[in-house]
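#lab-general

N.A. 3:47 PM
ok so I finally got the sequence cleaned up, no stray characters, all 215 residues accounted for. can someone with queue access submit it? mine expired

B.Y. 3:52 PM
send it over

N.A. 3:53 PM
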Amino acid sequence: MSKVKDIKLKVIDSKIANAFVKANHYSGKVVQNSSLHFGAFLGGKLHGVMSYGSSMRKDLIKTLVADTEWNGFLELNRMAFDSFLPKNSESRCIAISIKLLKKNAPHIKWIVSFADGTQCGDGTIYRASGFLLTGIKENKQLRINPETGEPMQSMAAYHLGKSREFKDWKTLQGFQLRYIYLIDKNAKLNCKSIPFSEIEKAGAKMYKGKKENGA
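B.Y. 4:20 PM
back already:
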C-alpha cells in the first residue's frame, strides 16, 4: 500500500501541468500567470500538480507583507490532485514545494493563495500546512454565464467585453479566504492574522459552495 512519504515532487513542463489541471481541477481551467509547476508522482505516474506564479494584482498583493520586493513572493495559483493519492498528500506536497523554493529561489520570501468557498472549500489544506489566514470576504466576483451555465470571474468578463452583461448575471454565493505562508520567518505582515475560529463565525465554513454544519 502506497504511503504519503512515497510521493516524489519535481518541476514539470507547463503543457503537462496544464493538461492535468484542466482534467482534475474543479474549475477545469488553468491560470495563465502560472510559471512554475510541480508534479506529484507516485509509482512513476503523475497524480497531482501545483502551479505557482504572479498574482493578478501583484501591485496590491505585494503590500500585504512589509518590504516585499517586486519578485519577492509567489501565488499558489492552482492545486489539482486526483483521488489516487493517499490521505494528507496535498499538505505534504505543499511542504516539499516550500522547501524547494527556499533552497532554489531564496528571493521568494512568502506565498499567497486563495480558497474559494463558492466552488471548492474554506482552505483546510492551507491551515494544515501552516498558512496564516489574512482575509475573509464574500466573493462577488463569480457569476453564472447564462449562455454556458459556467462560472465566470469579473476580470474574465472584462477581457471578453462582457462587463455590462456580467452585472446582471446570477452571483455565486460564498466566500473567498486569503492565506499567506511566510517562508522567511523574519518577514512581517502588513495585514492582520485572523484566528481560524473566525471562519465559522463569519459563516464562511464551506465545502464546494455549501455551508458545513455549524457554519
